[in-house]
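Worked example 2:
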Amino acid sequence: MHGVTRTFPSRPEPVHALRGVDLDVVDGGLTAILGASGCGKTTLLRILAGFDRPDSGRVILDGRTVAGPGVFVKPEKRSVGIVAQEGALFPHLSVAANIAYGLPSTPLTAMRPAERRARAERVDEMLELVGLPGYGDRRPAQLSGGQQQRIALARALAPAPAVILLDEPFSALDAALRVDLREEVRDLLRGIATTAVLVTHDQNEALSLADHVALMRDGRVVQAGTPQEVYAHPADPAAAAFLGESVEVPCTVISDVDGTSTVDCPLGTLRVPSESVHGSTLVLRPEQIELSDSGTHATVAVTRFFGHDGLVQLRLDDGTPLRLRIAGRDLPEVDASVCVRAVALA
């Protein structure tokens, strides 16, 4: 996708959903399009699928231009599979018929016996792939939410598309099932090396599932890279805050040499990657701050227990707020006096 724009008429002003988006999808991998509601990620997915046309720019799928100046390939001709938020299975069809829906559309009455067998074998293969063998005769209403999403994935994969588009496919599931199913889907897609694009607003989902993450904001891709890259090296404070918990500390840059800055801040004089300094603000992650026997004095303001770990909100003597994460069993008492230091920086 190169230079793609899309504007929708609206009042009092038009909505610029996409503003010159450039995006490369990892071949054989999973790319997550991450962003808040209204950032343009759904419009991007619709343009990839062929449900909408870009105003300008070019979309290339599997080496073929499917949208661009003078070119528009219809959705059914793009070799794209789609998994919607809630599966969107046909309730009046069996599971087997749902999976077979996207296969070559020769009328069943006109099919030769060999074609029927091949079709049935493909359906069985897909059921086996998503871990639901023997479910072909059931109706969607007889399946759990997680099972319905597995069948939706099987239906999308059945025609062997060049790319699978996943439109927040786990958002309607409860938390525990969501985690389990997304891990199953990740392993399945990696096992068959299918190129996939996942649209999500869930940071944990994007970082844990994807091989490549593109962060969108206001119709633009503001940062793209591996999950490790975008988390460790956010493009700006807003990207840092959206990609995970962040701590912003005022600072003064003393020196900047070969990608490493020396800064003076409420935590002392620190050597940090230059990319973590944005003007007069140092952006850290909570895990880069720890309680210690010596360092900068602070008072515990709030604690939050999450089981395996806990969040501690601190207030330095100069009023600077900080957050850090530690093991849940080690949470200090509120109003306790502690010392903190920054770790694992440059």
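Residues 2-241 form a domain with the Rossmann fold fold (CATH 3.40.50.300). The CA atoms of residues 308 and 328 lie 5 Å apart.
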